Amino acid sequence: MAAPSIVLIVDDNPIGRETLEDLLYGQGYTLAFAADGPEALQQAAALTPDVILLDVMMPGMDGFEVCRRLRADPHLAEVPVVMVTALDDSESRLRGLEAGADDFISKPFKRAELRARVKTITRLNRYRSLLEERAALQHAHEELIASYDATIEGWVHALDLRDKETEGHSLRVTEMTIRMARAAGTTEPELTAIRRGALLHDIGKLGIPDAILLKPGPLTEEEWAIMHQHPRYAYDMLAPIAYLQPALAIPYCHHEKWDGTGYPCGLAGSAIPLAARLFAVVDVWDALRSDRPYRRGWPEHEVLAYLRAQAGTHFDPWAVELFFQVLEAMPGK
Hints:
The protein is an alpha/beta fold. The protein has 14 helices and five strands. Strands 2-1-3-4-5 form a five-stranded parallel beta sheet, sandwiched between helices. α4 links the parallel β4 and β5. α3 (63-72) packs parallel to α4 (90-99), α6 (169-183) crosses α12 (274-289) and α12 packs antiparallel against α13 (300-309).
């Protein structure tokens, strides 16, 4: 339940304070009081009230000066100020507006009008404050997400530093996979998960010894068995991280094959997550085109012929066709 709105009543005359207190008592407000300008500024700073009912004619610091000082304070500048005055001339109202007043209430008070104005102003101020809080939370959330993504990119950069032969691979395959996912009709937040998963697809290789990962020649059967563990390593690393759980499909399943002969789970056909099926085509396309310690990159036409030949065995046939559609639509193709 929301806390009661705070109404700060400022009047050097005790009778004036008591009159406003009588009118607002029992209306669901927390009432606070100040007998002069300096006390009003102190109370406002301490309470951040939802509205200030500010008498104009006070000795020393009058209501106009109090209002100006409130508006000059960044923490209090948005607090609604209603000037309470027996002055009914346009010049006084203009001075109040120039000082930053939001509204005026004339003495003697009309009970219903006073209550209605205070109620309206406090409601609007609470609504504005709620919007500001929501905006602040949204901004904080966006900053948190940005820091998460920066961390992911840092991990990817660490992988690139470890394996110079694949430097840039993760960014390239991520861009192409996102193009394919959009062409397939994927929307947010699925695209965000796909982007993160594509960037992190090889994160499990952090668990593979350098002697195997960077070996300049073909791997032995035993070494391949170790290499085939990297999707499981990726799952073990990422699954405990809540915001990365939607992105697990690619790191864990991108080596599964359409015919069920892939790893780590031997999934087949549509049992393989769609994101992983799309990514598998892109991953092999980029890998075959790139130089590796144990071979030179293939010519483009050979890579494309290989992808078509593997449709229905290694790759989802629909994903292969989508890949070619996207590739042909890219600038320069």
